[in-house]
Amino acid sequence: MQALHLRDARFRYKGSTGWALDGVSLDVEKGEFVTILGANGSGKSTICLMSNGLVPHALPGDLEGTAEVFGLDVRNHPVAELATKVGIIFQEPESQLFCMSVEEEVAFGPENLAVPSDEIRERVDWALELVGMEGYNDRSPFSLSGGQKQRVAIAAALSMRPDMLVLDEPAYALDPVGRVELYRVLKELKEHHGMTVLLAECDSEEAAKYSDKVALMKDGRVISYGKPRDVLGNPERLRALGVTPPQVSEVSALLKERLEGADFSFISVDEAERAINEKFTNRKRGREQ
Amino acid sequence: MIPRVPMSADQDKIVSVHELKFVYDGNVQALAGINLDVRRGDYLAIVGGNGSGKTTLAKNLNGLLRPTSGSVTVNGVSTSEQTVAELAKVIGYAFQNPDHQLFCSSVAEEVRFGPLNLGYPEAEVAKKTELSIEAMGLSSVKDLPPFSLTLGERRRVSIASVMAMDPQVFILDEPTTGLDARETDELMDSIDRLNIDGHTVVLITHDMKLVAKHAKRVVVMSEGRIVLDSDPGGVFADLELLLHSKLVPPPVAQLAHRLSSLGVPREVLSPEELVFHLMAGRGARK
User: Which residue from A91, A202, A251 is facing B275, i.e. has the nearest CB?
Assistant: First the structure.
């Protein structure tokens, strides 16, 4: 059983003529970190919204094909049920924070499930610690930095004890350091807590660094799905899809063009450093001999 | 006493900020003493983390906010002696969220609104509207309501409506947030063209790849102060300062730092430059 299982899934929002999803097949295994990349309008957000049933329950429309979350057909299971399995985090943390204190914010979900208060307290502390926000219980969410707000939003999702976190462009309004903090938390959740993470992004820089798999979307379809190295190696192709390529992949492509016999295909700074040092230091040594 | 500056340098300055402090609600200090000259034709990026004071500084430049102490002069006259409407003729400001400034029923109406309010004659308004719509690539959607457009198009509408007022300076607050790669490239092409045509551009952003590719001068802000004012290469060469300012240099700049033993300078801004230096270093050793 997969965390997310889409097979030839099609979805058309009520009142719209075009299909937002037009035959998507995508499997996300439990415990995987998957990033969906694509231009605005390619269908990324619709997959995110479907993963906890907001599509088709809160945002109705025509749904065809297979769409299962942890084996549950999203058509037959309400958001309230799917929300105990899938926590969803949107672009702007402000749009989902509304309580007077960080603690109330994080306790809101389990309180609504009538979880006993002792356990709620436990869950709140656990969730805040996981996102590195312990001790912030009494602060107003609105006094926090963008990165901290987004981490509180994640803690609020975690307090429901979900098996999967779904994030739609979560770094949208964050400064670069806020971005780094956010991805560090997601990586920690995946590696040490077995969390399944599904992300939608326009920029592939973090996808290259953190994802097990990357899906490329175009016009409501997944056109490529695999390991970051296999999917993100061609900067020209990514640009044509409206996706920002990993910046060092452009270095890789340029070197391949100019150096005969070079077989570079790096997508991260670490790999690039190793590969270039090896290639260029060898050449130097070779000539000196 | 304000030091005397030679006349030519003075004429060159379009905005001059002196010891600017700004305090919100009597207790939150957002700007802690800013000194900055914006020169005619500058393509300036103001960068810094969330809450570093970028937007507060921008709003002090166009009179939406007035200094708590210190001064901002635009074309030699203090902003405290000018109305927002007067300043709008010189300094155009496009909000971070375009929906905060769009309210008309069609793109053309939206773009006309500014010059009409500034009291230009109808023929002039029509001309400015048409030119701005064309420059921002919006001709095909000019009769549509702004809210039916994509975010990238709405941002271009907000910039077109600033452009129609014919300002000398464009302040663009996080113009590419939420745009995908293609929309970003399209928008930045239009912004580059404004600068090439002689306009002064002030870009507020924390996208370091964007800064490396487009800006010619970078001001780094941290905790309400300017901590560095340099060309982009100089900024990315200073890793410590960037991190302290909640910024991370673009991956190519990070890579350049690690390849200095191969003759790659720290000021590298683009993949092309990095490869150029690698290949040149290789040639030199032949």
Answer: A251
Bridge pairing between strands B217-222 and B69-74: unpaired
Distance CA B251, CA A269 (A): 6
- Can you give the C-alpha Rg of chain A in angstroms? 21
Q: Which residue has the tokens 């092309």?
A: B272
Taking the C-alpha atoms of residue B189 and residue B183, their distance in angstroms, rounded to an integer, is 10
And the tokens for A204?
Answer: 């592939």
- State which amino acid sits at residue B125: V
| Predicted model pTM | 0.86
Q: How far apart are CA B156 and CA B123, in angstroms?
A: 23
Question: Measured between CB atoms, does B239 come within 8 Å of chain A?
Answer: no
- Neighbour count for residue A19 (Cβ, 10 Å): 20
DSSP secondary structure letters along A190-203: HHHH--EEEEEESB
Instruction: Spell out the residues 6+ positions from residue A273 whose beta carbon is closer than 8 angstroms to its own.
Output: B255, B258, B259
Peptide bond into A56 cis (omega under 30): yes
Closest CA to A84 of A158, A26, A2: A158
Per residue in A40-92, pLDDT tens? Answer: 889 999 999 999 999 999 999 999 999 999 999 999 999 989 999 999 998 77
Of B251, B259, B281, the CB nearest to A205: B251
Burial class of residue B179, CB neighbours in 10 A (0-12, 13-18, 19+) = buried
Q: Going residue by residue through chain B (286 aa), what tens digit of pLDDT does each one get?
A: 444 444 445 568 999 999 999 998 878 889 999 999 999 999 999 999 888 999 899 999 999 999 999 999 999 999 999 998 889 889 999 887 777 777 788 999 999 999 998 889 999 999 999 999 998 889 999 999 888 888 888 888 999 999 999 999 999 998 988 888 888 998 999 999 999 999 999 999 988 999 999 999 999 999 999 999 999 999 988 888 998 998 988 999 999 999 999 989 988 999 999 999 999 887 655 4
d(CA B226, CA B52): 9
- Give the neighbor-by-neighbor strand order of the sheet with B225-230: B91-94, B169-173, B200-204, B43-47, B217-222, B225-230
Q: B161: which 2 tokens?
A: 């409506």
Distance CA(B10)–CA(B37), nearest Å, equals 10
- The rounded distance, in Å, linking the Cα atoms of B142 and A259 is 48
The alpha-carbon gap from A279 to the nearest alpha carbon of chain B, in Å, equals 11
Which helix H or strand E contains B47, and what residues bound it?
A: strand B43-47
pLDDT in tens, A168-178: 988 877 888 88
- Beta-strand pair B13-24/B28-39: antiparallel
Which chain A residues have a beta carbon less than 8 Å from that of B286? 287
Round to whole Å and give the CA distance between A268 and B252.
10
* A-B contacts (CB, under 8 Å): 115
Phi/psi at B183 (nearest 5 deg)? Answer: -60, -40
- ipTM, two decimals, is 0.83
Residue A199's closest CA among A66, A83, A87?
A87
Termini Cα distance of chain A:
58
Q: Is B255 on the interface with A (CB under 8 A)?
A: yes
Rounded to whole angstroms, the Cα distance separating A160 from A180 reads 24
